[in-house]
Automatic annotation (TrEMBL):
Transmembrane segments: none annotated. This is BSD domain-containing protein. It is found in: Nucleus. Residues 116-135, 385-404, 503-555 are annotated as: Disordered. It comes from Lasiosphaeria miniovina. Keywords: Coiled coil, Nucleus, Repeat, Transcription, Transcription regulation.
Amino acid sequence: MAPATAIPRGLASYKKKDGIVTLTPDQSALIWSPLPGTGPPVVSLAVSRLRNLQRTPDSAPKVILKVFEKPRTPDGEPIPYAFTFTSPTEARNEANALKDLLSEFIKANQPGAAVGPATPGAGPAAGPGAASSAVAGSNGASASVSFANAANAANAKQRPPVVRWFDDESLKTNTQMQQSLMKQDAELSQMYADARTTKPDSLSDGAFNAQFWSSRVGLLRAHAIELNQKKGAYNILATVKPRVENGELRLNMKPEQAQMILQQHPLVQRIYNENTPKLSETDFWSRFFNSKLCKKLRGERVTDLDHDDAVFDRYNDADNSLAFATRIMSQPVPHMIDLEANEENQGGGPRSGNRKDVEMRPRYNVPIVKTLNSLSEKIMANVAPTDGESASEPAAANGDGGSANTNAGAGAVGAVDNTLGELTLRDLRGDVEADRIVLNVKEQSKFLSDRQTIAEDQSEDSRLYEKQVPGDVLFGVQADMETLDDDGAGRLDLHLSIGVDDKSDSDAEEGTRMAHVGSRAARKDAQDQILDGMRKKRAESNYTSGGDPASSPMGIPSEIALRCAITNATTTEFLRQFWNAFMSPAGGGSTSTARELAHHAEALAKSRERIDALAAEAEKIRDQLNEKRKAQIREHFKKTNKRLRYVPVGGGKEAVLALFEATLTGLHAAQALYK
C-alpha cells in the first residue's frame, strides 16, 4: 500500500487503452492519461462527484477498479468508469492504494459526515510527487470538505458547456452560441433584430427563434468549431534548428519546446532522465542536436562523417515508440481496412518467398518514411477523440469475462457496419425504384384540368419546336453538313462553316443573313448580354457605397439601399418559413400546421407592406433631390444667365420595386397559393 504522504498512481488501461490513473496534485480529481502520461488527461472525475467504488476480488485474475460517478440528472443512473490495472507485479497494490484513498474521500463527502480525512483542495502542491497530509479526526476536515465542494461547484459553473457540434437540436437551443455568432456577424444580428420586430404578434418568441435558427444550423456549427479549435501538436524537432556562429553551436530553444520534445520522443525523455543532472541542461541539448540520434529522429540521412557522441550514440538503435505502439496496436481496426490482416491472409510479408525489390526495401540510414509515420502516430495518439464512444467500450466497461466477450463481438460487428457506411460511395448507387401504390381514378379529366394551364404556360420556343417536322429538320441538318466549306487543302474550315469571317467589317452584310453560332453578330449579341448583366449586377451590388445618391447606379440613397438589403433578407426568411410549413409532410391537414401557415401568411403580407413603404420613402427622397437640383439650376441661371441641362435623379419607387422584382414575384406566388 502506498504511503499516506504520496499520491497513489498506477498503470491502468481504460477502454483497452494503456495509461496512468492517479489524482491531481491537489487531490481534487481522479484523472487518467494515456501513456506516457505526460499529455492532458482524457478522463477527469471530480472527487466530490464520486458515489461508489467496486474492485475485483483477490482471487480474480484481473485487477479492475470500477468508479461510479453521480448521475448528471436526478432520474439518471450512476456513470461507471472501469480501470484495469496492468502492472506485472504491483497491480493489486496500486489498485488497493487508490481504492483506500478514494473510499475515504467518498465517506467524507457523504451527507452527515462530521469528521473525516483531509479532502481534496486542502492546499496547493509543488508537483506530481508532492506530499499531502491526511489527519483523521481533525476538526478542520468538515470545513475542508465544504470548501472543496463549493470550489468544485464554482469551477463547474465556470466551465464552458460542452458543444456537440453535430447535434442540430443542441445548436438550435444554445443561446450563448447564437449570441456569440451574432456579435461576430453584424449583418446577421441586424437581420435577426429586424425580423423579430416585424414578426406577427401571434408568433411567439420561442417559435420565431426555432424557425430562424433552423435554417442556420450550419453557421452555428461552423462557429462552434471555430471557437473550439486549438493549436495542435507539431513536429517540434523540425522547427528547432541550431546555428553555428564563430565555430560555436548556438541554440535558441524555449522551455515549452523542450517539453514538447520530451513528450513526442519517449527515448529522449529516457536519455534525459538517465543523464541529468550529470549533464547540465545546456550541455545536454547542445550535444543532442549535434548527435546522430537527433538526425535519425528527424528522418535525415546518417553518415559516417557525422559527429560521434559517447552519450547519445548508445541509444541509436533504441525503440522510440514502445509506449505509443502499445496504445495504437490495442485499438480495434475493421478488417476491411486492416492492411496488415490482408497481407497476412494473402501470404504476404517475409513468408511470401519472394524478396522485395531493391527499391522497395527500407534503407537503414534513410528512415524518413518510418520516422514521419511514427511521429504522426504519436501526435495523433494524444489527440482527444471526436467520434464519440468507440465500439469496444461495452466490453471494456464490464468486469465479467463472458459478457465482455459477447459485447465485444457485438461491438466489432457495429464497428464494421459503421466503417462500411462511411466508406460507401453513395453517389455511385443506382436510382432506387419508387415503391408506389397504383391508384386507379375514374373520370381523371375532372381532377387533372391543370394540365391545360401548364401547356399554355410553355415557352414560345417549345411551341415552335412542336410544330417542326422531324424529317424537314433532319434534311436541313444533312444539307448543312454537305455544304461545309474547306480551307483549300481538303480540311474543314470551321470558321467559314459557322459563318465567321474575321476579315469582314461589314455589319450590314451580317444583318442580311442568319446569325450562326460564333458569328460576329452572335458574338456581339453575347457581348451585349454579358455587359447588360454586369451593369445590372453593379447596380444591385454597388448602391451601398455611400456618397451622393444621385451618383449611384440606381439613384437609391445609401441608407435606403441598406434597409432594402435587410428587408429583402427578412422577407426571404419569411418565405422560407412559409414554404417549409406548406411543404411539410403534415401539409394543411392538421390544425397546428394550418395555424402556422396563417402566421406565415400574415408575415408575408407585412413584408409586402414594408416593401411598399420603402418604395414610397425612396420616391419622396427622389422628389426632394429633384427639387433641390432644380433650385440649383435656377440659382445658376440667375448668376450666370446660362441654363444647365436638367437630368432627373434616378432611383425612387421604380428603382426599389425593380430591386425587389424577384422577391415580389415570390411573395405574390406564395400569397396566391395560400388564398
